[in-house]
Amino acid sequence: MRVLSWDDGDAPFAEQDLVILRSTWNYFERVDEFVGWVAKTGAATRLLNPPSIVAWNAKKTYLAELEERGVEIVPTEFVRRGEARRVEDVLRARGWT
Predict the structure, then answer these.
(1) Which of 21, 73, 76, 78 lies 20 to 30 A from 89 at CA?
(2) Which are the contacts of 30, defined by CB distance < 8 A and separation ≥ 6?
(3) b/e string for 63-95 if b means 16 or more Cβ within 10 A?
(4) Other beta carbons within 10 Å of 10
(5) pTM of the model
(6) What is the Cα–Cα distance from 67 to 77, expressed in whole angstroms?
(7) Banded pLDDT at 64 (limits 50, 70, 90)
(8) CA-to-CA dists, residue 4 to 35, 45, 97, angstroms
(9) Are the C-beta atoms of 21 and 47 separated by less than 8 Å?
(10) What residues pair up with 79 in beta bridges, in sequence order?
(11) Are the CB atoms for 51 and 38 separated by under 8 Å?
């Protein structure tokens, strides 16, 4: 077993029999780059979870899709890129304290 960083350009992911995603704490800062890495790595070796699932899950709007299908999710407020919202207004509208 080896621990490698997804954003280490020298890490030999393609040489591994299996790559398991664990603690990718910084992916949200470069989501598109991360999803590209997932696709590339998934094409070169076995990746858990499948690249299509990781890409879907990388952008947290998948939670809205689950909710639309009747799956209960943690109460969530989505703020789209470029949309200005005040936390106080969201709290008030949701009745959150």
Answers:
(1) 73
(2) 7
(3) eeeeeeeeeeeeeeeeeeeeeeeeeeeeeeeee
(4) 6
(5) 0.79
(6) 12
(7) very high
(8) 17, 14, 40
(9) yes
(10) none
(11) yes
Task: Classify each residue of 35-52 as buried b or exposed e, where b means 16 or more C-beta atoms within 10 Å of its C-beta.
Answer: bebbeebbeeeebeeebe
Six-digit token string for 27: 């992916």
| CA atoms lying within 13 Å on the CB side of residue 27 | 20
* Residue recorded with tokens 């858990």: 48
> 47: which strand partners?
19
Tokens 């890490």 locate to: 11
Q: CB–CB of 78/61 below 8 Å?
A: yes
Choose among 1, 6, 2: nearest CA to 39.
Answer: 6
The answer to whether residue 79 scores a pLDDT higher than 90 is no
